[in-house]
Each structure stands twice: as C-alpha cells, then as structure tokens.
Amino acid sequence: MPATAPPPQDPPTRTARYAPDDHAAGRTLLVAAAYVVLLRPGADGPEVLLQLRRGTGYRDGWWATLAGHVDPGESVHEAAVREAREEAGVTVAPDALRPLTALHRFERTGPPVEQRLDAFFVVEDWTGEPELREPDKAEQLRWWPLRSLPEQVVPHERLVLDALAAGTTPPPVVSLPS
Fold this sequence. Notes:
The protein has two helices and eight strands. It has helices spanning 76-88, 155-165, and strands at residues 30-40, 47-53, 63-64, 66-69, 98-106, 115-123, 138-145, 173-177. The protein starts with 29 loop residues before the first strand and ends with a strand.
C-alpha cells in the first residue's frame, strides 16, 4: 500500500515562530530608518538635496537628507520611497534606490530604544521638482554642492556625505557607538 502524505497544515504566523516572551528580557529594540541621498549634477560637481530641520526635537537647526523611520509592516525600500514623496514631493521608483551603506548607531549603556539601523540609498533618477512639503519639520530645502556642505550637517549623515564627496563609498555596514 503506498504511503500517503500528511494533510497540509497552515503555515505558522510570524509571531507563532517565537515564544511569547522571546523579545521581552535582555533584547534591544532596533529602530530602522531610511535615508535618501538625492543627487543631481551641478556646475561644480554633484549636488545633494538637504533640508534644515526644525520642530522635530532632534538636531533642529542642522541640515539633513530626506529620511524617516520605517513604519510597521513597511520595508526599508518602501520607507525611502515614501519619505522622498512626503518630505520633498518627488516620486522615486524602488529600482532607482541604489543601496549605499547601513549605519548601526547605538549607546553601549543606553536604553534599548537607542539601537538604530539607518539604511542609506543614493537616488539620481526621480520624477517631480523637489519642494518643501513638511514645513513643521523643516524650514528650508536646498541643493548643496557635495564638496561644499554647510557646517551643521547631522553627524552620522555627514559621515556618509563626506565619503561621497571624497569619491569613495562607505563600507556596506558601519557601527557607530556613542
């Protein structure tokens, strides 16, 4: 008599793979964010689009790329596309996102929420003219020559932009303890 296969079972849910308390004790919370380095040709070399932060509670008065947290159920690529649209009104196709680097920022003795993973993408092809779309979070949107950035650029973003300005690429993953 031939063997019969067992009846198919429903696949486990995402949370069914873990014990109920698996993430409770001793684990860090990892906050993911997507960064869009929008580049265009300029008279003196590449230019990068930066926004002057305000009203966010983090590095207000500093220049920053288009960026934001990854929402629940969203991929880092989807977050990058969404942030470019929300902050600058430009449409970026997912295949126009060129992975640049990932920064792991953390505080060795800090609270669990201070574990950050920042995915940086270079974008050189988009649709629409960039314009300030979130005046409550930024007071200005401006193109800067990559080799002549303002003094106050958010430090971890500056690290990435300075590498691009020098004609190098940051390592694929960089850990930055504070």
